[in-house]
Amino acid sequence: MMVRATDIPSLRPRVSGEVETAPGTGNHIYWKLADGWITHGEAQASEWQRRVQIGQVPLPQYGQFPYSRRTTDANGQTWDAREEPWRMFFQRGGVKELCLEQIIGHNWHIRPPYREVVFPQLEGVFYEVYECPDCERSVFTSLEEGYAPFTLTTHLRLGHGWSRAEVAEYGKELGLKFRRERLAHHSKKAEKVASALSDEVERDEKFKCKCGWAPLKTAKRPDTALMWHKKKCKVAP
């Protein structure tokens, strides 16, 4: 999967003209969450105290900025903090604070957020990138050789209504194994839906295929799930 450097923004964009600031929602700083991920949020005293009490660590050394459409970055350039909330973080060298899980979670290992950003966390790390065979828009990363990413399993089951047998068959075509259990490097969101990967869950009989398959009752678009199933089904016309 090739990404052209010209498609990636720069930390030093060429901007001309005077800076016109606009009101924002208060000053923000970057915070390290209890699980090691980085985010940004308000820096006012009450919010600061609340975040620290729940185990978050403030990172004011990477900048304090109004969360505004037009402000200035670390280089004094015009900056839309709502569109590019990470610009000042990377300008001030915050890359070393990021955990591997967050880099993978944002797909920054495939498309860096800025041309100048390099992640030393990726040195020596094995990973394989896979595209969804149905929608071909989503990409998923495996950190285990020979195993498909758990997020791809979840996407196929819940996003496209694949059965466990269909997922297993797809894995055979790629020479991959699929895990049901959550690995340490996978997101908490994937863990929440892991229980839905069992064939014993309730299914929506109103959208049942002639082969007996039916989408999960938790599916947001069971009609779409049925449509994708019929494209692979050998029984349905």
What is the topological layout?
Layout: E1 27-32, E2 38-42, H1 45-53, E3 57-59, E4 65-66, E5 71-72, E6 78-79, H2 87-91, H3 100-105, E7 128-131, E8 139-142, H4 150-159, H5 164-174, H6 188-193, H7 222-232
Give short descriptive properties of this protein.
12% strand, 237 residues, single chain, elongated, alpha+beta, 24% helix, two-stranded antiparallel sheet, 8 strands, 7 helices, 2 domains
Structural account:
This protein has 237 residues and is an alpha+beta fold. It has two domains: 24-121, no CATH class; 128-232, no CATH class. It contains seven helices and eight strands. It has helices spanning 45-53, 87-91, 100-105, 150-159, 164-174, 188-193, 222-232, and strands spanning 27-32, 38-42, 57-59, 65-66, 71-72, 78-79, 128-131, 139-142. Strands 1, 2, 3 and 4 form a four-stranded antiparallel beta sheet that branches. A two-stranded antiparallel sheet has the order 5-6. The protein has a two-stranded antiparallel ribbon with strand order 7-8.
> What quaternary form is this?
single chain
Structural class: alpha+beta
Largest sheet: 4 strands, antiparallel
- Broad shape: elongated
Averaged pLDDT, please? Answer: 79
Helix segment count? Answer: 7
Kindly state the percentage of residues in helix. 10-25%
Uncertain stretches of 5 or more adjacent residues: 16-24, 181-200
Number of structural units classed as domains? 2
